Amino acid sequence: LVVAAKERQWMLVRRLADARANLEAKATEDTKTVLSLVTEALQWETTVHLAKRGADLNSRGDAGKTALFCAVDCGQDDVVQCLLQRKADPNAPDDNGDSPMLRACNRQLEHVMRSLFDGGASIDDAVKRAS
């Protein structure tokens, strides 16, 4: 599964997930999960597919970003909603301590801010970091 993700074989990743491959497998040379590799490649269809198959939505990739954080970064509100429905942590900060809500506020993504708020994100943390 990791090899398929690293080789950007997205259909194969989805098929392996359907076949119950270990979604938490990591490459030996780094600590990224398949979900991290997929979201960092901006493969939203595969991200949602892995989320629906039970991938750890709070695993972290580059700079400590979760799949939710990556989706917020790209303004992918439908993906944000899907991840929140599957219990992604709406307050999980990246390595800089920025929350998904702060990122959505900084980018003025009102629809994403609303989804995060509805999903339990803390506005207080975003306000504190912004001031």
TrEMBL record:
<protein>
    <recommendedName>
        <fullName>ANK_REP_REGION domain-containing protein</fullName>
    </recommendedName>
</protein>
<feature type="repeat" description="ANK">
    <location>
        <begin position="63"/>
        <end position="95"/>
    </location>
</feature>
<dbReference type="Pfam" id="PF12796">
    <property type="entry name" value="Ank_2"/>
</dbReference>
<keyword id="KW-0040">ANK repeat</keyword>
<keyword id="KW-0677">Repeat</keyword>
<dbReference type="GO" id="GO:0004842">
    <property type="term" value="F:ubiquitin-protein transferase activity"/>
</dbReference>
<dbReference type="InterPro" id="IPR036770">
    <property type="entry name" value="Ankyrin_rpt-contain_sf"/>
</dbReference>
<dbReference type="InterPro" id="IPR002110">
    <property type="entry name" value="Ankyrin_rpt"/>
</dbReference>
<dbReference type="GO" id="GO:0085020">
    <property type="term" value="P:protein K6-linked ubiquitination"/>
</dbReference>
